[in-house]
Structures are given as structure tokens and as C-alpha cells.
Amino acid sequence: RRPGRACRFGLLLLWASALASANGITNGDFSNGLAGWTVTSGTVTDGGGHALLAEDAAVLLSSIEQQFVMPEGISKLAFYHEMVSAVDPGEPTGDPADAFLASLLDAATLTPILSTQPWLTDFFYLDDTGFMDFDPAIVTVSGGLVTLDLTSVMALIQGTQVILAFDLLGFYDGTATQVRVDNVALIPEPATLTLLALGGLGLLHRRRR
Questions:
Q1: H or E segment to which residue 86 belongs
Q2: pTM of the model
Q3: What was the pLDDT predicted at 52?
Q4: Burial class (CB in 10 A: 0-12, 13-18, 19+), 110
Q5: 78 Cβ contact partners less than 8 Å away, ≥ 6 residues apart
Q6: How far is it, in rounded angstroms, from Cα 168 to Cα 104?
Q7: Cα dihedral: 110, 181, 40, 94 (round 10)
Q8: Rg of the chain's alpha carbons, rounded to an integer?
Q9: 171-174, Cβ contacts within 8 angstroms, sequence gap of 24 or more
Q10: Angle at CA of residue 171, ends 53 and 44, nearest 5°
Q11: I want to staple 36 with a disulfide (CB 3.0 to 4.6 A). Which of 26, 109, 157, 199 is the partner?
Q12: In this structure, how many other beta carbons lie within 10 angstroms of the beta carbon of residue 162?
């Protein structure tokens, strides 16, 4: 017999709980403001369900980060972003473009785990001219969704402390820039997802019996 609506809803709850337990990131959807995240520089505020990085007149860098232990069985890191720029008549032009960067660092050494170039820290770069820079071998971009493939380094970083950082470099280029960041998540490997699903189905079957 097919499970009823209540059973299917229970399975969804079990599935969501299993995924949450596999995710080392706290408050990745920013539903609890900036809890779990640290503002290390400039102006970063709760945008109402997302983090809002904004240019700061006093400093060039607005930055938010979270340190966490990388769980086992993770294949990808993903987040959504949106850059919004407006003309700022109070800023002179001629400086470099405002830029948004995402970096994944070793917490002990602060060296990049995966990056765009060997000498840079970020794995994703976007400036207010629309220029993007990333390594297509490890990063995919679909609209506002950025996904970083971690399979090549998971054996080295699982169980270790890492730092995920989002930075907005606000130069005096004649524009005022803001970046929204949301839905930061770690995605389990397909095999891990299967085990989680089977575990959820098993619990549901035992409850029905």
C-alpha cells in the first residue's frame, strides 16, 4: 500500500533532519539572522533571510565568514548570490571595479583549499562590470547559484577546521555595490544521500509496522 500523506510528510521531515545533521554549516539560509557567522570587516547586515554585504565608506573590505568542521561524505559546497550596483555620484571614477569573492580556507594556515589561481585565495570572483573568474574544473555557475566541487580534496579536509569567507571589495569606482548571499550548503556525495534516504525509509517502515 502506498504511504498516506502523513507518512510521506514524515519521510520528508526525516530526510530534512538527516541532511541537516550532515551539514557542518550553521544557519546557511540566514533564517536566524547572522547567527553562526562572524563579520570580520566593514558592513554586513541581516537582509531578512540573507546576508547583505555593502560598501563601507571607512574601509575597502566588507567580509563575513564561518569556521566549521568539514563533515565526511561531502561532495560539493554551494551558495546563492546577487550583486546590485548603483551609480554613486559621490565616488570618483578610475579605481578598480567593486568585486565579490568567495574563499574556502584552511583554518590553521589560512591558505586556500581550492582557488581560481594558485596565488589567489578565492574560488569565485565577480566584479560590478559583470566579469567573473573561476576555474570551470571545480566551479559551476548557474544564474546566482555557485557550486564548488570538493571531491578532489575531501580526503584531506574531512574532519578538519575550515573557513568559508565572503568578501566585498568596495573601491572608489563610481558605483555603490551590495551583494546578497543566501542558502549556503554542503551537498553530500550521492552514496551518502542514498544511505540517508534508505535510513529514512527504514525508520518510516518500522514506524508504520
A1: strand 74-87
A2: 0.80
A3: 97
A4: exposed
A5: 145, 146, 147, 148, 183, 184, 185, 187
A6: 15
A7: 90
A8: 20
A9: 171/60, 171/95, 171/96, 171/97, 171/98, 171/99, 172/91, 172/92, 172/93, 172/94, 172/95, 173/91, 173/93, 173/94, 173/95, 173/96, 173/97, 173/98, 173/128, 174/87, 174/88, 174/91, 174/92, 174/93
A10: 15
A11: 26
A12: 20
Mean pLDDT (whole number) for 24-35: 95
Q: Is 55 exposed, middle or buried (0-12, 13-18, 19+ CB in 10 A)?
A: buried
CA distances to 22, 27, 149 from 189, rounded to whole Å, are: 11, 21, 11
- Does position 135 have pLDDT exceeding 50, yes or no? yes
Residue 113 C-alpha cell reads as: 583549499
Rounded Cα gap, residues 112 and 52, in angstroms: 24
Q: Which residues contact 196 (CB under 8 A, 6 or more apart)?
A: 15, 18, 19, 22, 188
User: 32 falls in which pLDDT band (50, 70, 90)?
Assistant: very high
How far is it, in rounded angstroms, from Cα 51 to Cα 19?
22
The span from the CA of 175 to the CA of 89, in Å, is 8
Is the pLDDT reported for residue 179 higher than 80? yes
